[in-house]
Automatic annotation (TrEMBL):
InterPro entries membership: P-loop_NTPase, ParA/MinD_ATPase
Domain of life: Bacteria
Gene3D superfamilies, per the entry: P-loop containing nucleotide triphosphate hydrolases (3.40.50.300)
Protein name, per record: CpaE family protein
Record's keyword annotation contains Amino-acid biosynthesis: no
Keywords, alphabetical: ATP-binding, Nucleotide-binding
Species of origin: Cohnella soli
Length: 412
């Protein structure tokens, strides 16, 4: 095995060298000139190249990334360490080029020991992913029609579950490939996200440690991990079923509960694979004919039934509910399955504020969200019961909501 490290800091190179076995042929370059000599000598023979972007202080990202790609062999695995000092525009260019050129990324902000650990995991992979459905449980959430509110329901349920499962790990993943909104709704500004691990998912080499490092954390909810979506919306149809399958297999081994927010339209791999493999399939619907009748039936009849799924394999969450009893029965009849939770709309502009200012609606403890939070707890309790997890109640929790009791049609 041959590896080249291109780091500007000797202490980082020293730490990286310690995690590599002695029999590996390693070359260290501490500036661009030394890297050029190393690549001219043996670039085509390399198994790995790890390069910190700070090596290329005088060149544009598209120049040095293309240079590395053309200087190594087809099978060489390229890993770029992102710099904390790079401006947001250049950082976005690097992330986009990495997707196009199948280059792996290591996020900025890690300690030297964490970077060394990540290098070791890339060179000596440990994850075995023979069974895609082994491990944690997967709940996939989608809207019956665009903008029915699946993202808000997924975010709120993930927060609610994590707060009441303190000894469990929860992952919220934004697989709404054509319209990723979790990053915006939570006001996440970091480099982390699916783009850091897409190359690893595509090659089937994703490690649990890399997945964890690609996730964000939410303040005061330490066991909730958030993987934001790929900002390259045009890549939605290029991501493959196998890529998503590999990701889910690793995620199940890493987390106890995975909540995936997926797109309404099943014309992309993430929606198809998540819904097909999910332990719980949740469809968010509004009390609007175009949502529960036209959109849902069109997609179910043209796609889902051909994957061997029945209408009863899905469960409904009635969002922006107006408590109409007959409405609920009409929706169930039209969609051929049952409503498991009804979620009231919020007043005083709380919903708009949550989206525009990155303030999760579920964490808004104003009186205008009391009923909404109870409804989300009811849904979370239903999921917990289905996956065999007992929730740990908070002092403020409604006992009825915690037990999943709900007046579905306002007449029970």
């Amino acid at each position: 095995m041959k590896i080249t490290f291109a780091f500007s800091k000797p202490n980082l190179a020293e730490a990286a060298g310690k995690v590599i076995n002695k029999e590996v042929e390693t070359t260290f370059a501490f500036n661009e000139e030394e890297l050029t000599r190393a690549l001219n000598k043996s670039g085509r023979e390399l198994d790995f190249i790890f390069a910190h972007e700070e090596i290329f202080n005088t060149r544009y990202p598209w120049e040095w990334i293309s240079y590395i790609k053309t200087s190594v062999g087809i099978k060489t695995k390229i890993v770029i360490l992102l710099s904390e000092s790079t401006d947001s525009w250049y950082r976005e260019i690097i992330k986009r080029l990495s997707v196009d050129l199948e280059i792996s990324l290591i996020p900025s902000g890690l300690t030297i020991d964490e970077i060394a650990e990540e290098i070791g995991n890339r060179v000596y992979p440990k994850t075995k992913t023979s069974d895609e459905n082994e491990g944690g449980r997967l709940a996939a959430v989608m809207s019956a029609s665009p903008k029915d509110g699946a993202t808000t329901i997924a975010i709120s349920t993930a927060i609610c579950a994590a707060m009441r499962m303190p000894d469990k790990t929860v992952l919220l993943v934004d697989f709404n490939l054509k319209s990723p909104e979790v990053r915006d709704q939570l006001n996440i500004q970091s480099d982390r996200g699916y783009q850091l691990i897409q190359s690893d998912c595509d090659s089937g080499t994703l490690e649990q440690s890399a997945l964890l490092k690609a996730c964000e954390k939410l303040k005061d909810v330490p066991n909730l991990h958030i993987l934001t979506g790929n900002q390259r919306r045009e890549w939605a149809e290029k991501i493959t079923i196998d890529e998503i399958g590999h990701f889910l297999a690793v995620a199940r081994k890493t987390f106890d509960l995975i909540i995936a927010d997926v797109h309404t339209f099943p014309d992309q791999a993430a929606t198809l694979k998540c819904m097909k493999n999910a332990d719980e399939r949740i469809v968010v619907v509004q009390p609007i004919v175009t949502s529960y009748q036209s959109s849902w039936n069109d997609w179910f009849n043209s796609v889902w039934q051909h994957y061997g799924m029945k209408e009863t394999d899905f469960h409904l969450v009635l969002n922006r509910d107006n408590k109409g009893a007959l409405e609920g029965f009409s929706i169930e009849k039209a969609m051929g399955t049952k409503i498991v939770a009804r979620v009231r709309n919020v007043d005083k502009g709380a919903g708009i504020k949550a989206i525009n200012y990155g303030q999760p609606l579920y964490l808004n403890e104003g009186v205008e969200t009391n009923e909404f939070r109870d409804n989300i707890l009811q849904l979370t309790s239903w999921i917990a019961e289905r996956i065999g997890v007992e929730l740990v109640p908070l002092q403020k929790d409604s006992k009825a909501a915690l037990k999943g009791k709900r007046k579905l049609f306002g007449i029970i």
